[in-house]
Amino acid sequence: MPRFLAIVSLCAxxxxxxxxxxxxxxxxxxxxxxITLEKQAVPFTLTVPGRAVAFQESLxxxxxxxxxxxxxxxxxxxxxxxxxxxxINDDTYAADVRxxxxxVARAESALQAARxxxxxxxQLRELATSEAQLEDARVGVLSxxxxxDSALATLELARLDLERTEITSPIDGEASVAAVSxxxxxxxxxxxxxxxxTRLDPIYVDLVESSARVVRIQDLIxxxxxxxxxxxxxxxxxxxxxxxxxxxxLVSQSAGVSTTTGTxxxxxxxxxxxxxxxxxxxxxxxxxxxxxxxxxxxxxxxRRNAEGVLTFYLVRDGKAEQIRxxxxxxxxxxxxxxxxxxxxxxxxxxxxxGLRSGAEVAPQPVTLTKDGVTxxxxx
Length: 379
Known about the structure:
Blueprint: H1 2-15, E1 30-36, E2 40-60, E3 66-71, E4 78-79, E5 84-88, H2 91-123, H3 131-163, E6 166-168, E7 173-175, E8 185-186, E9 195-210, H4 211-222, E10 233-237, E11 249-253, E12 263-270, E13 282-298, E14 303-304, E15 310-316, E16 319-325, E17 327-331, E18 334-337, E19 346-350, E20 361-368, E21 374-376
Parallel strand pairs: 1-20
Antiparallel strand pairs: 1-19, 2-9, 2-13, 3-5, 3-8, 4-7, 5-6, 7-9, 9-12, 10-13, 11-12, 13-18, 14-15, 15-16, 15-19, 17-18, 20-21
């Protein structure tokens, strides 16, 4: 038996492969798929939080006091400028108009009488009429004209109050639910609104951005790092994550910076024909300021470490080298990276499982499809 075991051990030594024929760990260079990176013009886009604000909003309040006689409009429906929303009982105001009309008639009669008196006095001037009597007649005409003007003003105010018993919308928009019902007593210029009319098309989105970030971007533009030849573009991201189908237009920006938050405000206008956007919504806007020269690192090829730093592998001298870089955002399912890469370098996009920095690799050129799938590169 000992002789048999010795023979078996000798055979194992004879037929075992030479130690020098094996790579450390029993494996050769790890096959990896790579793509070549080149700098390209990449849109410089920032994502900024914002809140939707009505383009116009009118609080409907009565201008005269009285009792609500009728709620005319359809609550929640669109109405136009001048459409009647409420009616106030107008009996008192109609009587005031008739009284004012009577005052005007009396004033007109008094004026005519004063003019007749002046005419007779002027005809008798060369006889027994004194200069003082003539002057009194002239003053009487002026006084009668003033009384007529006052009566006409009173009539105009009475007619305005009568018209104001019909409360109309000053703008086009969507009407809210009425805050009062028939029979409610209202007062002129009261604090509580009877309803609200909101114009939703177009609509504003107010953006808030850190003033420090604004300064950094301005420096990049001045230094030529960002090409701003094209107009700024504003793309709205809805609460569902979908992109709104119509771009916005910058309307204004605040002249100062908030002393409490250190932020600057920008107002962007978006078309809203379908009333998809509603005042008060919290939204995000992708602001494209121009383009800059940068590399696009596919998201499938990169990871973030425990510190939140973006990492990926490049092939250098036949080995995988882990690169730490700062991301400038995302474009077309890729991270935007401006530093840490040289044009023509090869990025590992396939075979990343178990890959470590310093490992020998056998790079194979591949192509990424639109779906993020790697296929062998065409020769």
